[in-house]
Amino acid sequence: MATCYIGETSINGEYVQNNITNLMFRLPINCNPGKLEVYKINHKKLIIDNLDPTLNVPIDLGEREMNSEKFFNLNFKLIKLGESIYSTGRALNEDESAFVIFQNLEDSDIVKVMEITPENQYNLSIELTTGNYSVEGFAIHDKPIHIPQEVFCYKTGLFSGKECQSIPEMNLDSWVMGALELKRFEISLYDVYNANTISVSLIDLGIPSNYGDLEKLSNSLTDLGGASEGLKPTFSK
Distance (Å, rounded) from C-alpha 132 to C-alpha 39? Predict the structure, then answer.
């Protein structure tokens, strides 16, 4: 199927809610029936299916929404597992970093990645438009971690016998100390029109100091999806 298009756009409207994109286009009559995809920088892609260009038959698509992106200030914090999203939480410390990814579920071209460091964490912004998103985030402890050697003993046989096993020490270059995993999060027109700030919280899993901690925190990472459900980002003015 050939790709056939001729079009142009114009913008009017002082405010986001009044900003309308006018599209004028024609499709050559030798194009097969297909779909029209409209791309505009900092706008959500517009897709119109089942177009069948025919001689002397005008194509009137009416008025369609093509929502623009908006810059939101971004507030970031780490909160302990089980705490409310409204808890005070904490900021990143030295030797810690994080990133948050918003991926639009309806438009795979819209992926926003925010890198967060101790230096920029109080001056963050992200450009988003309406739609449903998946949201993922990770916080990294960038300093090496030492897990000391441990000896575990257990009973054997019927006469109170005992055997012991030594687990060698472990040195980790870094550790995933915080995370977030949301399958679906909606940004509505109301959010875009009325909010200026979006707040994102990651679960603070902590840093292991022994093998018991290591096992517990590894299990928390495995169950991250369920633990993240109460941590959906919030909007404010």
Answer: 19
Q: Is the pLDDT of residue 41 over 70?
A: no
Statement: the pTM of the whole predicted model exceeds 0.70 = yes
Say whether pLDDT at 2 is over 60. Answer: no
Residue 160 has a CB neighbour count (10 Å cut-off) of 7
Q: What is the mean pLDDT of residues 176-201?
A: 91
**What is the residue whose two structure tokens read 């409204």?**
86
Burial class (CB in 10 A: 0-12, 13-18, 19+), 62: exposed
pLDDT band at 173 (very low <50, low <70, confident <90, very high): very high
Quote the CA–CA distance of 136 and 124 in Å, as a whole number.
Answer: 17
Cα distances (Å, whole numbers) of residue 94 to 43, 69, 113, 121: 37, 33, 21, 12
Closest CA to 205 of 186, 185, 219: 219
Distances (CA, A) of 9 to 25, 127, 201: 9, 22, 39
Q: How far apart are CA 211 and CA 197, in angstroms?
A: 40
Q: What is the mean pLDDT of residues 226-237?
A: 84
Check if the beta carbon of residue 234 is closer than 8 Å to that of residue 75: no
Q: Which of 227, 138, 135, 216 is nearest to 175 (CA)?
A: 138
Residue 125 φ/ψ, nearest 5 degrees: -145, 155
Output the furthest CA–CA distance in the chain (Å, rounded). 97
Q: Are 138 and 145 in contact (CB under 8 A)?
A: no
Q: How many residues belong to the chain?
A: 237
Confidence band for 21, pLDDT divided at 50, 70 and 90: low
